[in-house]
Amino acid sequence: MTKNLHSRVSGVGAVTGYGWGRERLWEGLASGKPAAGLHAGFGSTPDEAGWIVTVPDGGEPTDGATRFARAMRWAAREAIEDALAHGWTPGRRVGLVHATVMNDTAMHPMFSCTPGAFSPRQYVAVTPSTPITLLMREYGFHGPAISVSAMCTSGSAAVITAKTWLDAGMVDDVVVVATDLSATPEIVNMFMRLGVAITDDEPLSACRPFQEGSRGFTFGEAAVGYVMTNRRDVDGYADVLGGAMAHDGFHPTSIDPELTHVLGCIDEALENSGVSGGDIAFLNAHGPGTAQCDAAEGVIATTRVPDAGVFSVKPLAGHCQAAAGAVELAASLLGFTHGEVPATPQVSPAAIGNLLDGLTSAEPGLTLKTSLGMGGYTSALVVSPV
Q: Which of 86, 324, 325, 133 is nearest to 228 (CA)?
């Protein structure tokens, strides 16, 4: 990535377990109360309830037949309207990067149905390209449009991809959206059987990033949108200074214990951003509360950014899978405007130093956002408050 010090995030939109809209997200995070609730069918057996974070019904019915389509369009539209209010005007080439992994789960029955069970209209209504096409048509955007998939790093990877386009001069502006509404009993159960998703306990008890007694994460859903531009006359939340992505090529579920490529990705992101680890004020961690990820990011915290305050919002917003990095980045960006870091309240002894405890008043500062994904994905980006 060629460094450009002014890839500005001028608009933010969010649909999360706290509700529809970025203000609902901020209010929820600032409260220190998890968005999760008990939902039937998500326990250890189909007859038991379990703790998960789901996006409530809402949005515009005309935006699509499913929550996935409506949430994607809502988050993007809110980000666009927010950017317009910050003085942004769309350039000739507005691109779109959409981060998703499971896509719209309403499509899944179509993959195993008998021929003719669904009409072509039904198929087109829920195919992942449809919300993108309708959004591009709504605003008359004609730049490149792609979907990216990098497991739990997808949201961060989408932001880095957008900055790459901006730095290369391929586009004037980019709309970034990360959408994951995949909290079905079948999918959550698979993560439970892998030993990482916890549904039998409340989030603050089950998920304790960088604290003693953590068991894993609470599964979550979200759609988050951003508008990014290189225009220098536009206000906004933060500038993306740089970033990096890597894959350790080690195991389908485990992190290489040597951390060679994880730490290499962090080093590259810092170098690409033109900053040193000592410049970083906050580490916005992936922080899912799993042993492997917390150990890896603990090394990042102590060896790469030893002076940074560390926090994770996974126990609050849930682990939103493909949208996780985007939700967590939004937490920092909204925090910049409020002069607060929406850290999760600490409930047990910390395993690392500098772990922030609950909503923390702080001057906005350089923030390193890290994301780790099942299968060996790593991404990291550095943002500077406007």
A: 86
